[in-house]
Amino acid sequence: MRYVPIFTILLFLSSALSIPILADVSPSSSAPTAPLITTSTDKSSYSIGDTIVVSGSVRSLVVGTPLTIQILDSNNNLVQVAQIDVSQDGKYTDTIKAVGGLWKSNGVYTVKVQYGPPNVTAQASFTFQSSFTPTSNAFQLKDPNSQQTFNVNYTISGGTVKTMTIDAQSLSVIVSVNSTSDGTITLQLPRALIDAKTNAGQDDAFIILIDGAEVKPQSESADNNFRNITIQFLQGDQDIEIIGTQIVPEFGPIAALVLAIAIVSIIAVSAKTGLRFMPKY
User: Fold this and answer.
1) Cα–Cα dist 32/91, whole Å
2) CA distance 194 to 171
3) Based on the domain organization, do 178 and 205 belong to the same domain?
4) Cα-based torsion angle of the residue sequence 217, 221, 226, 229 in order, rounded to the nearest 10 degrees
5) What's the pTM value of the predicted model, to 2 decimals?
6) Below-70 pLDDT ranges, the chain
């Protein structure tokens, strides 16, 4: 029985010494740290001619060190590279235009950014379409004055044609489009509808406005019956106005024929009845 107190003391000391050991193996409760660098694009998919916005942030600013942006296509070929400065708050933004001969394959593209040490990198991805599928159609444009109807053939990529109208006062045809991306539209304009002539009677250039701003056509051609014009537009553009020097006449062929018949009838009636339009002196 004399060994019981000694045994009790040893057991107490063993329990006391085990407390800090258990505390050391407890899991850490510290919060995760932010990544060294981040990157993203403003959209998940793009088409040829689109503008790609790349942005992100770095955790530690390195004075005088540029940030490198690389874009690789679906075959891991480099199609674009740029170096930009990082702002004082650690954020960066760059815009890249998806144009040029290297932007030619469809698929998933990768954006890689690197800053300072080689291991400080990040990447993002987006889908890319290198070409549009043009849509060809014909719009029946009716002049409200002469009641004439004209078929305006067109081919558009990067959007759709919503409507076409005639503005007789400004001698123009207005094409309203829903431009889902940068694109082009080619119009076959009948000369009987709209034309542009110099004082000498030769073909003159159309004036082209997109949402009120003057632009130059991408190409023009003509024959005896039509003026063909190709116009580039940007995503979000709405109204394309083609201004000439002459628009469809107020009296079309049918109206002119009716007018001629009426005049002939009046002359015939006046000759038969002796009706005079001017007083006889």
Assistant:
1) 20
2) 8
3) yes
4) -20
5) 0.51
6) 1-31, 250-281
